[in-house]
Amino acid sequence: MPLAGTLVEGRYRLVRPVGHGASSVVYFAVGTDGLPYAVKVFPAELMARAERELSHSPALTHARITPVLTRTEVQGLPALVLGFARGRVLFDRYTRRPALTQERRAFLLTLAHVLEALGHLHAQGIVHRDVKPENIIVDTDGSAKVVDFDLSGPINEAFSTPLRIGTAAFQSPEAVRGEPLGPESDLYGVGVLLHWGMYGALLDEEGAGPLPETRDPLEGLRRTLLEPDRFARPSRALDVRRQLLSLASLPY
Description:
One of its GO terms (molecular function) is ATP binding. There is one protein chain. By secondary structure, this protein is an alpha+beta fold. Helices cover 30% and strands 20% of the residues. It starts with 6 loop residues before the first strand and ends in a 5-residue tail after the last helix.
């Protein structure tokens, strides 16, 4: 059903859809206070997703994370009101590829901000579990915010049966196996993003061919983040951020 123009709670006017996920549609909205907001609308059968994301809201208080402000309904559908992140999803922001060649400083800033957000999230005992370009909003200068926490959950949360969580191209090997996920699983997703930034293609993208030789100082970090063995992979996001910026010879 068309929702643009709907006034939510007498306060938030939906303007247009700005994002589509597997389980929701995100609308740009303007509040009666004149400020921009995002309203994330879920199908009725996925109310539990909205409740799950809302339950994480106390942990989502960081400059690099879009906050969840309140739970609401839009024409009977479960919804969340969020802070608005300016910019475009990562792949749409970096159209000149490889991003580390074309816009090195901006892309490194993006990764550093993602790692800041993950470091905060992990310190609260939560893993994102779906680190991918669609969940990273990037502004023109490369500054970024992480969004979409309806798949997030406690570190090493176990389920009664193996559950594959995340998006295939960015899933860690343990996510593919349906194992409980930890910080190192989120950092595998960062490794996929770093690989894409260096080579302009995803790990198994059709037609990508063998990797070209590179002298980029970040190559070792890329390999470490993509270790198939989760116990050989880094598990501290802020340590990875420091290493990233040190190898790139940028101040941190």
